[in-house]
Amino acid sequence: MESQTVFYELKVNGKTYRVDDVEPRMLLADVLRDVLGLTGTHLGCEHGVCGACTVLLDGLPARSCLMFGIQVQGHEITTVEGLAPDTARRFLGRTRSAMRILYIRHTHNHVMVPEAKPRTNSR
Ligand code: FES
Q: Is 122 among the domain residues?
């Protein structure tokens, strides 16, 4: 059976990208990393637990391993690459040692969440 592919646009870090010829079931984290080359988003548990894949979706933290890329069309996505250069540079270096990768995975959630908009109670 031949798999179906789709195309759509995503707005990431203020720039509009065309995502072309991908399967609709492709996770947002995989789209960011493998299609757009934004490798600052990492995958750890892939179950929504560790936070390594956290991005900001319309300013609020979201696990990119739990949603499809096609689901977030029309939303503003911010990855670690879209943060202030000084903040991102601290966590993304050229060194890719196993220790550094583990450090990045475990600190990624702590980098992205403080950048999120404060939640308001709308009740
Ligand atoms: S990879 Fe662990 S929460 Fe997404």
A: no
